[in-house]
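[09:14] KT: can someone run the structure on this one? pasting the chain below
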Amino acid sequence: MTPPSILTILHLSDFHYTKRKRQDQKIVVDALVKDLENLCIGHRRPDIIVFTGDLVNAGEEDSHEEAYDFLLSRIAQATKCSDERIYIIPGNHDLSRRIVKETATEHHEWRENCGKMDQLNNFYADPSFSEIIRRKFDSYYHLEKYLNDSTVLYKNAFSSIHHIDTLNVDIINLNTAVFSVGGLPHLGHDDKILAIPEHAILDLLQYKTPDAFRIFTTHHPLQMLDDNSSRYLSSIIENNANMYLHGHMHDPQTRNSTNFSGQLFSDQGGAVFTHRRDAYIGYSLISVAPERGYYETRLRTYFDDRKEFDNAIDVVRGGLFHSSHEARQWWRDIATPINEKYLREHLDIQNFHTLQDEMGVSETDRDAHDKFVPPPMKRNFVQPSGSDDAKGIGESVVSFEDLVFGNNNVILYAAAEYGRTTVLKEMMYRHFGNSEKFTFPRVPVIIDFSDVRHNIENLLRFIRSSLPNLPDGVNINSLLQLGYICIMFDDVIFSDSRSMSILRKFIKTFPKARYVLSCVKHIAWQYGSHVNPEMPIHFDFVELCELRRRDMRQLVVKYNNCTDVDTILDRLQSEFREINLPFTAANGSILMTIYESQSKFQPINRSVLIEQFIDTILKKAALEQSRRETFDYANKTSLLSHIAS
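[09:31] RB: done, structure tokens below
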């Protein structure tokens, strides 16, 4: 497998989470999340998040689990990156000082021999050594296991190697903090007393994936290690890595070097938070075209006076670093291979009526569009621990505008007949003529889940045939690769393992597109919690709810422009209660359609209601269409879509 045409990595480092500074840290985290939400769209949405050490200020005293809730979880949601794509490595602040104190004698011996490679290899082979290191980083290891246990190929006391199959990426984490004493003054400083044994690296490299794009990470820069280890690791990285990421120095530096082994891109991350007012706070968003070796790094700086992140013009011109002149020119072209302005103009000249012939919009669809009333919606989520509130299921209101114009991937669920399909269709129509409301323009398309079959190539062909006309020079591949498309899958069944396997592979292949999945409630919500769709990217769960009286009022007004709205509303509510029907736009439309021809109609049950509705619709149609032999597939489809709306 080859890497994707564009790979994007979000590189952060050195947050030093501590309860003592939560209030100050929250200001920076809020600004970071806002910046990531605006920046990480299209091809800039990260495929991988790498945090290169010092997640907490004092391991064991400050909880790694709380730091995950406070920082990493929010970053994952802001970037739409799943937890298993977050990779962390330990720094000198992530260790337990208590364990260091308890094993001070052992640490003293290790550090005295840090320049003797044979002795380091002996330490590495001793099981008691590995047990002390396990205890030393126990809090960190628990979080690492939660995040990356599914991708680990091999792990020892000094290193681990992970492989992301869908990206064909190896991530090799080297723990340079094994011999660190975490700043305990009586044990001395760490500079030039850190090391990694040769045997630990040789064991690790046996598990590297041939032809994979390879990312090496450390917390400390190599020059802080003992000279022997520094030279050895420099050679290993130069000969095996495509990218090298590290932190610790709180000073952003990005380089691209060429040697006899090829090209090596390196990024020294700035701190995400520091207690020193005059120190740098920032992060890097790195995009690479693996087959070409072209890198683009967007460096972002936190400006305290504005309380926001922006281009790091204090670090590099324009806040952008390119690995070469050719890379700069290539990224200028590929960054917007689709002329965004042109695409917006193309979407704006389209509207519902111009799409009727092009996309086969039926009369019932037109009627549903003209009378559409946005239903109430809510997002359900698990409240993070570490907050003032108790951990549990939370709810927040989601407006229809948030659903349409947002960038989140969504699983939209509701009970039967709540109008999920109508909501998807209206979302599609709103993409046209409203480009100024979108932070990122997307071409919409609706696919029925039953059409997800055979393989990815078949699904790709089906999507291509379902798209509206595209501007000249724009094709389905560029839309998918760079995220200029919103694909809505209707009536998804998560238990359909074959179709879901195809859908998951498709989303893994094109993770930068926006996805909306529609399903009935019992499929998405079971036993008081959401199902795990096992998707490679993050999805929000949004539930469609019953209409409120004020929502149904809008529908009544749109339906027949009557003056006595409250009388009809009272009657609808009464009829719904009588036959135990939910107060939805679909049921309201059905009943009002019948009222138009039979003002005194009173349904006995749901079956009678549908039977009378179909009879009413057929009477409205041409006489020849009411005969059984002419009630063909197209007529059935039109009728059923009207019922579903």
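[09:33] KT: thanks! The chain is about 40% helix and 20% strand.
[09:34] RB: yep, looked fine to me
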